[in-house]
Amino acid sequence: QVQLVESGGGLVQAGGSLRLSCAASGSIFRLNGMGWFRQAPGKQREVVATISKSGSANYADSVKGRFTIARDNAKNTVYLQMNSLTPEDTAVYYCSGSNWKGTYDYWGQGAQVTVSS
Fold first, then answer.
1. pLDDT digits (tens, 9 = 90+) for 65-82
2. How far is CA 20 from the centre of its chain?
């Protein structure tokens, strides 16, 4: 099995920055792509950013130019740098890992990010 543990969430004022980290352990060989998803109250979970094993990244339109995803394969860790945060970014952020078929099977416990206006 794969374990994913997020850290770095918290409360920040609008315009501020936060960095989320996600450390993977266990059967790391099962992991291919990594991603960050979020779920705001009353809304469905949505993809924020994904990154392939080779480092190719994709972003949701709502975060392009503000968020950056990165991964350190040697440390089995993926990061999400979030800048210029707005209250609309308030959500629980989940780290996820995909298997080699591309299905996001592995999930962390979630990290709360709250942006105050």
1. 999 999 998 999 999 999
2. 7
